[in-house]
Amino acid sequence: MRSHHSRSQHSRSTRRRHAVAMIVVFAIVAVFGVRLFDFQVVRAAELNKASASKQTAVTKVWGTRGSIVDANGVVLADSVERWDITASPKDVVVDGFVRSKKAKDGTVTKEHVSVMDALGEIAEITGSDTNKLYEDLSKDPTSNFAYLVKGVKLDVFNKVKALGIPWVWDQPHPARTYPNGAVAGNLVGFLGTDGALAGLEKSYDTCLTGTDGTQTYEVSRDGVRMPGSTVTTKQAVDGGTLKLTIDSDLQYFAQQTIAAQAQAMGAQWATAAVVDVRTGKLVVAADYPSIDPNDLNSVPAESSGSRFFTAPYEPGSIMKPATVASLIDAGVLQITDKYTVPGWYTNGLPAGSKIGDVFAHGDMHWTVAGIIEQSSNVGVSMISEKLSLPKRTEYLKKFGFGTKTGVGFLGEESGTVQNPVGLDPISNKAQQFGQAISVTSAQMASLYQTLGNNGVTVPLSLVEGCQHSDGTVTEVPTPTSTRVVSDYAAQQTLLAMETVASKGPLKSTISIPGYRIAAKTGTAQVGGADGKYGSDRIVSVAGLLKVDDPNYAVIVTLGLPTKIKTSAAAAPAFAAIMKQVIKTYRVQPSTTATPDTPTEW
């Protein structure tokens, strides 16, 4: 009996528990039902009104501008993180706001901060003007966005953020920096408030520019961003990396070298180039003065571009190897041909006109190589008679004069080759020794590249390609090579030029023991505003390393020196850069001896 009674009690207890559980479940469902009815029916209007107090804000996500790097990946231009300090005018409370202030002893007090006090704090940190900040904040009081200060650095951004101003926000904003300063600054160019303004920054803007994205987020009535509400609506895409042919270390050395020599000689400007003769790649394209893109006031405005590409000038005697190579190619000249060179050239010139050399002399017995060694204008005028003016003009144009180089640099000039039709008798001959013709430093570099490359021009290049943010690469098209003169003509011209380094007046400065150097000096008269030549000069030394196996062409030009007005002013810089090229590229010494090319007879 006791066992039956116990089972009955257990059964009644189980039924009670089930009943209680059912009542609890019913109660919970009822509560949720009531709440749901309350949300959807009773309080629908109220909640909809509260929801309307929230807003969706849109903010820009910056696509970072790509870098510019040298041939070895050294960064010449880069983007760094900066922040824009922004505000929400509609959330500004006229009476100010209250914030907590922590004392040094750890106690916390409340302080009232007016709008002008808050703006004053921002102005003090950022170096801005309080009144200007207030003006920007007050332009549209109903707006939820206004710029206060743009492009501040991280330490400034943190200080502003620490102020705890409820209606002040921030936006990350990439800015441009040039970590190597003036190194290749005239080539790289720079940005302004309206975007790319100069140099490669401008001409390759499509490669470098990123695509901005957007994000949306919800903000409450008091302007607070709702956590977890940010959604990227458009993905930002970074810009590509522009790779140059320049060697930044060698570029730096060349810039420093020509700057020091220009200043020592009192020159107004200078350029220098180093070209890989096999590829046409510019490993140096230097200018003095050199702009630091971080400081646009570092040089006068007229020196902010690259004179190397954009400023034609009369080159003088460094043009003479082009004349000799043309005549040899045409089959009318050999470097061993003998000439009796008088002190003046008058053949075919108007009465009273004459062409002379930089030094007075009587009849001299020079070979063609000797005419190059002595840099005789009279001698070049004489040998030019062996080829017609139209044919000589054709050769000048084949060497690239009168046409822009393959670089396509922003603002590049083409220079001028005189039209042979109706050309006056003096200019007829003067073009052949570098007067009455205008060229750029880039075109002269191309001439020596051609002579060093067995008479074949490979168009100069400064950019290798653009690597996009997705990893794909757009390479600069391979330039089309063009034969200008025969390999024999080019090699013979180099032998004539070798006498300048082995026998000429500057041999002690420009010769390098163990290396066969082909060189040519130049001292050009500069025309004045009246069209007449004055006392100003442009001086140059150009050459090739090595004669027996040409690898690199080097050219240095100084504009308007005042202390030494001959090519001797440019020779030390030429020699220094040539030696640095040997070190940089570990150029092996020549394996053959310098031949005794006759210069006199």
UniProtKB/TrEMBL annotation:
Pfam families referenced in this protein's UniProt entry, alphabetically: PBP_dimer, Transpeptidase
Main location: membrane
PANTHER family tied to this protein: PEPTIDOGLYCAN D,D-TRANSPEPTIDASE, PEPTIDOGLYCAN D,D-TRANSPEPTIDASE FTSI
Name of the protein in its database record: Cell division protein FtsI (Penicillin-binding protein 3)
Record-annotated Penicillin-binding protein dimerisation domain positions: 63-224
Positions of the Penicillin-binding protein transpeptidase domain: 271-579
Subcellular location: Membrane
Record family assignment: Belongs to the transpeptidase family.
GO cellular component: plasma membrane
Family annotation (InterPro entries): Beta-lactam/transpept, Beta-lactam/transpept-like, PBP_dimer, PBP_dimer_sf, PCN-bd_Tpept
GO aspect biological process, one term: cell wall organization
Gene Ontology terms, MF aspect: penicillin binding
